[in-house]
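Example 3.2
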Amino acid sequence: MSLAPYASHPARSRGRRHPEPPAPTRDDFQRDRDRIVHSTAFRRLVYKTQVFLNHEGDLFRTRLTHSLEVAQLGRSIARALRLNEDLVEAVALAHDLGHTPFGHAGQDALDACMAQHGGFEHNLQSLRVVDALEHRYPQYDGLNLSFEAREGILKHCSRANAERLEAAEPGGVGRRFCDRTQPGLEAQLCNLADEIAYNAHDIDDGVRSGLIELDRLDEVALFSRYLRETRTEHPQLQGRRVLYEAIRRMLSAQVYDVIDATRAALEAAGPADADDVRRAAPLVLFSGTMRAQSTELKQFLFRNLYRHPRVMQTTGRAKEVVRELFDAYIDDPAQMPQSFALREDRQRAVADYIAGMTDRFAIREHERLTGRRWIE
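Structure, written as tokens:
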């Protein structure tokens, strides 16, 4: 399949920070994907949480399974729109590499610990992982990914951090946050595929955990339609198959909506190439109706899952673990590996070390340093 003219073409990539000769059998974006899959940070995602902590159940989503689901959805949509599937996959697989243990609770706690030292943003941390914290190659730190992959990984960035990135790398991945332009279509697509995946698997995990009753989802227009369809067409269906079929239909509806809405936006904007895309308004999007329904679903999940007392109790404990780990390493850097302990910027070194931990390693380290078990 030929790529659309406004897709990201590897032959027209803006390149890598450290120039390298081309690979004999792979283009630049395929090479990016392969480097991400073989990275240490990618392997750790299997033991990093989404909503439920890693030790709470074997069937709940982790950062790894979430990233794979984003990649699958992204590639399906990219194929229909003639965008670069390999770049979409690379960005999807790398977008959560900088996430802390314990999901957003860990991120919030680490951001509070770093409040006087530049803060902590998990998207920026994902970029730090691929730019500096992976140590796999003799010539440079990081994975030396293409500009386009790095641009997609940096999904959000504060103005202050964008200005710091721009000062260090003029015209680089921080520039668009300063001049308010857009990333390429593949990066825009990964942002939306991330949202679609979240909406679906958090319903699944929420019902599976018993924190959300299936019938409560009748309150949510986006899901209730497909739940009713499933029950009408398959009245004999019982148990989880009802849930799975309704989620499958909801996913398909969102994917087709993005394809149709994006095609219409591209036709209206008429971008000639990837640079035109960056100067335009966002072009990968939901229809107005689907955007409203997706927002309603996210609000429902926020109230009924992310703020459920059981989840809040666990996340409160997780924040405590991160805060106490941070204080312990600041007081005694020798408790960290030398590659972190000897760095001059102690606070950032500690943040990098904690952010790289899996849930279970953070729990073990906290017990080692404090003598207190997770469940007391």
